[in-house]
Specification:
Blueprint lengths: L1 H18 E7 L12 E10 L4 E2 L10 E2 L2 E10 L7 E10 L7 E5 L2 E6 L5 E5 L2 E5 L10 H4 L12 H25 L11 H11 L7 H16 L8 H7 L7 H16 L6 H19 L4
């Protein structure tokens, strides 16, 4: 008789294994250091053979407590994309056990009944063992004596950061000052009121008409004379550049200016006044940059 009972049990287990396929079981990542109030989650994915399906009326009761473990939530979802019926069962437990020493505990084994077929089958989720850690050891009698003083956090040395910040701010100030020095027209800034800087400011304000051409030429000639220390003529350009080499890179432009000036003042020259004054304004800016030694 015992042999027949064992044979029937083995047959039933084999039949259940054929009807139910466990795809995956996911347990909590840590099995030690669990304390009162902690939430533990686990889940199981299974496939069942048709026509079996999970009985949602026979699920474990939400809110039930067993050995200090409360089943706080249960969720059953259908698996998508599988030919056979499949389920994803999610369980959430909360620990309410009370112990004064580390204790071995377990999330309980669960069973999920299947209906729709001729056999009484169920999905089995085995128990999961873990270690429960008490908040306070049992041997503490005087809590005050067990208190550990709080240590002040280690101070972070900010001096290197302050030094780097100072260097970066200095570079920023120098860069801004350089941009201001190169592009500004303000005469109150030091070394900003050179002869060509003054000429450039005046040329920018001139109307672009024929009557302003002589004034534009006059302003540039006065700037050349001021820098040279005497009247500068076309034949004196080489000596001027020798004394003031910062203007050497504009030698061709300076020579062309004197040639065009002679044509405009002493000859007949047909040209566009607006374009001519615009070109003189650009030249005055380039001469100003050379004067400031930023070009």
């Amino acid at each position: 008789m015992a042999f027949i009972a064992l044979l029937l049990t083995s047959y039933a287990a084999t039949a259940q294994d054929n009807e139910i396929k466990t795809l995956k079981v996911v347990n909590p990542p840590h099995s030690a250091g669990i304390r009162i109030g902690d939430v533990l989650e686990r889940q199981i994915e299974v496939q069942v053979s048709a026509p079996y399906q999970i009985s949602r009326q026979a699920l474990p009761l939400k809110g039930s407590v067993r050995d200090g473990i409360e089943l706080s939530d249960i969720q059953v979802d259908d698996l998508k994309g599988s030919q056979a019926p499949g389920y994803l069962i999610k369980l959430r437990y909360r620990v309410f056990a009370n112990a004064h020493v580390p204790t071995s505990m377990a999330l309980p084994a669960e069973g999920f009944a299947l209906t729709g077929g001729a056999k009484a089958l169920s999905i089995k989720l085995p128990a999961w063992q873990f270690w429960f850690s008490p908040l306070v050891p049992a041997e503490i009698k005087n809590v005050k004596e067990q208190l550990i003083p709080q240590f002040k956090p280690t101070l972070v040395d900010v001096v290197p950061h302050q030094q780097r910040l100072a260097v970066l701010l200095s570079l920023l100030v120098i860069g801004l000052a350089g941009l201001l020095y190169i592009n500004a027209d303000s005469r109150w800034l030091p070394f900003m009121n050179g002869a060509f800087a003054r000429a450039h400011r005046k040329l920018k304000k001139l109307p672009r008409t024929q009557t302003s051409e002589k004034e534009a030429l006059l302003q540039l000639h006065q700037a050349f004379n001021s820098v040279n220390g005497a009247n500068l003529f076309e034949g004196d350009i080489a000596g001027f550049l020798s004394k003031h080499p910062q203007f050497s890179k504009l030698r061709n432009d300076i020579e062309q200016f004197f040639q065009r000036s002679n044509q405009a003042l002493f000859g007949e020259w047909h040209h566009d006044s607006a374009q001519f004054i615009g070109e003189l304004t650009v030249l005055s800016k380039r001469l100003r940059d050379c004067e400031r030694r930023v070009s």
